[in-house]
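USER: For my understanding, would you kindly supply a protein sequence with its structure tokens?

ASSISTANT:
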Amino acid sequence: LVLGKSYSLRWTLGTSVNEKYSCHPGLNTSKEKCEELGCVWTEDTSNVSVPNCYYSGPDNAYSVADVKYTSSGVTANLTFNKTSLKAYEKSMLPISSLRVEVKYHNNHMLQFKIYDYANERYEVPIALNLPKSPESTVENRLYDVMIQDKPFGIQVRRRSTGTVIWDSQLPTFTFSDMFIQISTRLASQYLYGFGETEHTKFRRDMNWHTWGMLSRDQPPGYKLNSYGFQPFYMSLEEDGNAHGVLLLNSNAMDVTFQPTPALTYRTIGGILDFYMVLGPTPELIVQQYTALVGRPVMPPYWALGFQLCRYGYENDTEIAKLVEDMKAARIPYDVQYADIDYMERQLDFTLNPRFTGLPALINKIHEEGMRFILILDPAISGNETDYPAFTRGLEKDVFIKWPNTNDIIYAKLYRAYVAFPDFFRNSTTEWWMREIAEVYTNPHNASKSLKFDGLWIDMNEPASFVNGAVGGCRNEQLNFPPYVPQLGFRSEGLIFKTLCMEGQQYLPDGSPVSHYDVHNLYGWSQTKPTLDALRNITKERGIVVTRSTYPSSGKWSGHWLGDNTAAWNQLDKSIIGMMEFSLFGISYTGADICGFFRDSEYELCARWMELGAFYPYSRNHNGKGAKRQDPVAWNSTFEDISRKVLTIRYTLLPYLYTLMYEANAHGSTVVRPLLHE
């Protein structure tokens, strides 16, 4: 391994600032602890982002043996070498024996997986679209792979140019029960993706930045992990070729970008299961990635029309007047929403007495060619004396419980103690479909049936207004693990505004799994059952819009960019967010036009209407307590602006619909960065 020796030589020559790789963050809390780990401590006051504790040379923690190259891949065994383990906590002790498997799935896609073959560990329960047997040929593969030793690493090279696009022969690799770390050199500084977090630029800043990833009820903000979990990136090589990498892991993690250029992953559970696609164009990357995780959903034509929503409608009369005012102003408009105001005390599947005219209003707008979408939250109140949805949920045993008990974990949402359905369970999907069907048909009182056309699922990270549970959590290690990724509100561990991590869930095959492992799949697990229910009930294609996402969520839903703010800097950030979700395979996307939080200003809202008219998902929506911002809330000039720009949108709908078809059929992007052209 001549190349491996050259790397070893480089390490003995000294470490520049850009070559400093953080040594066991979470353990290296002092100079003494750092040196116990065999690393070097240097405090750099000029740049606080540079790690204080870093590797001084090659860390040969794992030796490589039994390397076997075949026409369909590579296998190898790894053995942990170090004898001094006093610096490690028990849950951070490196696993002694690991297996490496590389599979050449086809000529442009490979998988490399590192796992504990002696002890079964949690793996993401999502079936990707992989060939039943390898489809690559030695002559036509776009890549070559080498397993390296001293230190262990995997190298992937683009065959046509010789460019190394993955090179993990770096000293950072460690694999323990609750801390797994791997680094790779990158082919260039041009990196895009990872989410869901708000970014000021589409291209990621490689100058010592760490970004945490854990699904959370968190409005967009700098370095704050938000609603979804998307561990996928695309990188451009210096010659313009592109490749993409997915880490199929659903545990909390963070990623560090450094100017080497290099990338470090840290996750706190599961295994390392990477999938790489080699394009070579950016547009082909998205097509190949969505072939793997699933093509974007095909929305109905009406879902491309302009849409209005507001959290804070007083009653159905207010919505009815809005519909009439929009018609009188001749402003193109196809979809109206009801937020949680339509529910009785924010209870799913109920109707507020102030909205008893809503069923008739929905029927009326249907007669006029419009559509209606309702919101649903996953949390189900346990406070009520007569709440059939909760009672039937108990009968079906659908709620997440404390481990080894029959007791439900109660969180809090709005004013109620709530239980969270476990959407992995078959019984839960059956229960969920029945409850949704009762809203649509209302067999007890047909005059109260709500004939919705789409469903909007919110608060599904899952969100709670208390940390963990009412009364607190019970497992300190799972909720405050030895290494807490670089999340917003990190001192609160993993449970800030969400459920206790020890919650017991069950996969469809009945096998138990902790919420710690599948937290980031909660919204994902709710999405398909919601779309299935919608289509079975309405007998139409319909649309689901979800707040929390994971790779492959785009097969079933669109996504809006969350509770943004009425501020000028949100306009360009919305474009960045849409382009990122294009990479993630979610084409039906957009931001709340004019902003969700705060009062929108006239000029801001007018400009945002002009931008938002070209979002694939074009919806003006704002929050309770803020003043109205719909197109007929201002003056006749604002109405003229809205009418003009939305008329342009409507002339382009055949083209937008065709792009949506191309995304659904071939994986092409709809919101497309210019670099794809």
In short: DSSP finds 14 helices and 32 strands in the chain.
